[in-house]
Backbone:
């Protein structure tokens, strides 16, 4: 009777398929570059839906991006990094431009949607000098598209006229659930150590 | 040597000029964040219901945008002006590529109609250091062409009495044609009287409550001239020991003219400015034909011209009126409030109100800083006529006003402070 053996290429194929699946399944990926911790989330797309609709109508859309890091235990907050980005879409070039509003302002232009999203996350990198290499870390990424300002102001533009103050926007604000319509994305990862990240394991 | 230097410079500079600049690392800059501000507006369109009703100044401002750089804040302001002017709940702005490279077409689409639109307005609010608080607010529900409103008011400023109560109204803006509007108003007030008025008034002139019912039709004769015709049925309960109710039923006719032209200048340096002129003449006649107790004829004419240019705002107003016969106190003319002879106390001028009035005012504001001058007189008999003047300074922005006014007279001068909105 002939003995059944597993061919080596099947093992290699299974390994790479598993790795690919694991990478594909990861929403928030941490990497280290020198003393900085960098973030990427290839499966998170925030230039979609209503924000994209506004962008394609030549409006600019502000995004608030926050990265939170915990160390040691899940309850020990290590650091919060918050930044606002303003994204716009060139109607003629059909490319995105992103400005990081943190001083000094930095702008990247002529980007595809994926490159624009990646650029925002790259801008969120944080210095991890002083963190022990074997200390477990957890990370959370929070992205929110900001609503049009006009809707948020009870006595904003358009509410005051010759006939008085229109109080209807105020009623509308208190009538709707807070942030119910605000598009937002939240991804988490961890625990992972800097050692593991430097050896090549993704967070 | 010189040749070698030139070759060296070209060797360094030319490749640098030929190579495209990379997108990254990103630029450090402070310019606009919207990349479309580099584009040029090819044309501006307004579509949807009522778009033809836009005023000439607004149309002119919209037309001026064509050929300019795409400026989102400016376009949003224009969108808000369209909303205000047409009283529509929503105006959407669509921006698409134009026919020429790097040009865009902007279309303002007037959205949902007035149907089932609800609005709550604080239409007037005032604090006057001599007369206290006054306020007026109303809620309006629009269903098709009909508007139903309900409001509350407490006003110690306009008349010699403080009146407080409710107001309700129904208006149909389209009766067969856009040129005919119908309106029915009902109001019911309780009165409070100042001691100075009580001392001078005859017992049968003071009333505790009054109610009004007023059906009115408005015909647009020829834009921008319109005429209103109707009747005001008023009943008021006198403050006599024996309760007695009187009626003041008057025929009301009003002619109104309102015209605007020019542009306030959304772009700096626009010559001319925006001109706005309003004028009206009103006739109210209480007659026995309508079973009115007091019989009187009341004429009133008003005119107001306003010029806005850049940050400057000039307004000139005129008021004149005359009553013949015996009119109830709420029909009489009052000066010395937050709109006329500012700085004077209406109770020291004429606590009962008067049968004759003449008044003029000039307001000038620059970047919200306001100065004004008022002059006028109220009288019953020609020998009582005495011209009064007042001056004031303050600030005014988006309908809000805070000011201090002084009567021009010899002796002790007491300033009057007032603050509020839309008075």
Residues:
């Amino acid at each position: 009777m002939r003995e059944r053996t597993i061919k080596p290429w099947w093992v290699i194929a299974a390994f790479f398929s598993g790795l690919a699946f694991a990478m594909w399944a990861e929403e928030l990926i941490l990497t280290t570059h020198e003393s900085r911790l960098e973030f990427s989330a290839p499966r998170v797309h925030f230039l979609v839906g209503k924000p994209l609709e506004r962008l394609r109508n030549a409006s600019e859309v502000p995004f608030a991006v926050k990265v939170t890091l915990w160390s040691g235990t899940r309850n020990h907050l290590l650091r919060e990094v918050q930044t606002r980005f303003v994204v716009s879409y060139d109607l003629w070039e059909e490319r995105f431009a992103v400005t990081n509003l943190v001083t000094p302002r930095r702008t990247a232009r002529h980007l595809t949607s994926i490159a624009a999203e990646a650029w925002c996350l790259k801008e969120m990198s944080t210095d991890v000098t002083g963190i022990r290499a074997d200390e477990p870390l957890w990370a959370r990424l929070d992205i929110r598209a900001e609503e049009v300002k006009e809707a948020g102001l009870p006595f904003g533009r358009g509410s005051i006229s010759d006939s008085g103050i229109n109080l209807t926007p105020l009623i509308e604000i208190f009538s709707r659930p807070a942030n119910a319509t605000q598009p937002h994305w939240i991804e988490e990862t961890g625990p992972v150590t800097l050692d593991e990240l430097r050896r090549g394991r993704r967070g | 040597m010189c040749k070698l230097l030139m070759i060296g410079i070209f060797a360094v500079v030319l490749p640098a000029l030929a190579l495209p600049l990379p997108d990254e690392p990103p630029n450090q800059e402070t310019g606009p964040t919207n990349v479309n501000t580099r584009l040029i507006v090819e044309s501006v369109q307004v579509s949807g219901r009522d778009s033809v009703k836009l005023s000439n100044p607004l149309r002119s401002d919209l037309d001026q945008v064509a050929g300019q750089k795409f400026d989102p804040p400016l376009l949003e302001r224009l969108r808000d002006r369209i909303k205000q002017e047409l009283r529509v709940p929503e105006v959407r702005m669509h921006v698409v590529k134009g026919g020429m490279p790097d040009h865009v077409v902007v279309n303002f689409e007037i959205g949902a109609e007035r149907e089932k639109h609800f609005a709550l307005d604080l239409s007037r609010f005032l604090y006057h250091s001599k007369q206290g608080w006054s306020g007026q607010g109303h809620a309006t529900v629009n269903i098709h062409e009909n508007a139903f409103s309900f409001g509350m008011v407490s006003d110690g400023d306009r008349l010699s009495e403080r009146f407080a109560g409710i107001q309700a109204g129904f208006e149909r803006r389209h009766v067969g044609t856009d040129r005919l509007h119908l309106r029915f108003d009902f109001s019911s007030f309780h009165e409070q009287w100042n001691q100075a008025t009580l001392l001078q008034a005859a017992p049968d002139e003071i009333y505790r409550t009054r109610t009004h019912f007023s059906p009115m039709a408005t015909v647009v004769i020829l834009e921008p001239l319109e005429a209103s015709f109707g009747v005001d049925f008023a009943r008021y309960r006198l403050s006599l020991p024996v309760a007695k109710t009187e009626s003041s039923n008057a025929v009301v006719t009003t002619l109104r003219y309102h015209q605007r032209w020019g542009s306030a200048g959304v772009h700096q340096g626009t010559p001319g400015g925006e001109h706005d002129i309003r004028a009206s003449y009103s006739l109210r006649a209480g007659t026995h034909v309508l079973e009115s107790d007091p019989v009187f004829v009341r004429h009133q004419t008003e005119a107001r011209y306003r010029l806005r240019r850049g940050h400057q705002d000039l307004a000139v107003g005129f008021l004149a009126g005359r009553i013949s016969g015996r009119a109830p106190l709420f029909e009489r003319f009052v000066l010395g409030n937050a709109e006329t002879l500012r700085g004077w106390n209406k109770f020291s001028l004429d606590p009962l109100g008067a049968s004759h009035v003449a008044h003029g005012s000039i307001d000038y504001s620059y970047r919200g800083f306001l100065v004004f001058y008022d002059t006028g007189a109220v009288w019953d008999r020609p020998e009582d006529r005495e011209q009064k003047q007042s001056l004031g300074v303050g600030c005014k922005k988006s309908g809000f006003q805070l000011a201090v006014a002084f009567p021009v007279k010899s002796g002790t001068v007491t300033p009057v402070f007032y603050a509020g909105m839309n008075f």
About this structure: The interface with chain A takes residues 23-24, 26-31, 33-36, 39, 70, 72, 76-77, 80, 83-84, 93-97, 101-102, 104, 118-124, 137, 398-399, 421-422 of chain B (CB under 8 Å). Chain B is about 10% helix and 50% strand. Residues 261 and 275 of chain B are 5 Å apart (CA to CA). Confidence is low (pLDDT under 50) at residues 4-26, 266-270 of chain B.
